[in-house]
Amino acid sequence: MARLIVLFVLTSLILFSPVWPAEKKAVLSVSPAKVQIGDPINVTLEVKTSKSERFSVSEGFNLSDLELLNEKTPVFFEKEGEFISAYQFEAVAWSVGEKKLGPVVIIFDSGEKLMSNEASVVIESVISEENSSFADIKNNLDSIPAAYIWLIVLFLIIVLIVLIIFIVKLIKKKNTKDENVEKIRTPEEIAEESLQKLAEYDLTEEKSLKEYYVQLAEILRRYIEARYSLPALDSTTGELYKILRDNEYLKERASDIKTLLSQCDLVKFAKYLPDTHKDDFDMTETIYNKIKYREKKEDSKS
Question: What DSSP letter does each residue of 79-96 carry, written as one string?
Fold first, then answer.
């Protein structure tokens, strides 16, 4: 009788076991199990239940120091009486060594919790073991010695200073050129400014009077030389007179110029003191104005 009972129980187990509820499972897997730095890693989480149940994945999913790239669309299917929900992720690692993932906690709507297994993946360096002392790809910048960083910063500062000095010198050079352009004045401007200063000359002493006539002659000579390119400064009064007589613009004023310069020569070399300097100054202005007037007249004709 006992044998019949045992036989009945075993037969029942064999016949009716497919309809028993399957055990709930959460399986975490990684493929491939060994990769190099930067290679993609496929992470799969399969939740198996005996019936279709709603659940959620705990936010505390441990990915170690893997960087999650993207999440694929979940897949749901039924196989051999089990309902399987498959979640797939793609990740990447930036440091070598064994990385442990999980476990993952599954929370069903009924309040029941299910914990998956742990999975691991081995990350190998892209360089040989002999050169394994090199830093990982993501940490290369962090491995640069601080001294090198300061040298780079110092170099950039020096380059910036040199650039600033170059720009400042360039600006100064430009300003100097502008100033030189401004300093270039016409012979007329120089003569008029010199005559104005001479009119304010102090003639209370004999020495001052002599200097006055020297300046008076030089103003006229410099103007003639600058305006007509004649050797007025290096020529004697007699030599200059001959040159002026042959000049188209100055031949009419040659005698007046000779008379004035001769008067200046007497004061300079013969210690001659004229009764009044005002006439000579007025004569200089007259000669200058008549020359300038003729130049303007000739220019208007042309």
Answer: ETTEEEEEEEEEEE-SS-
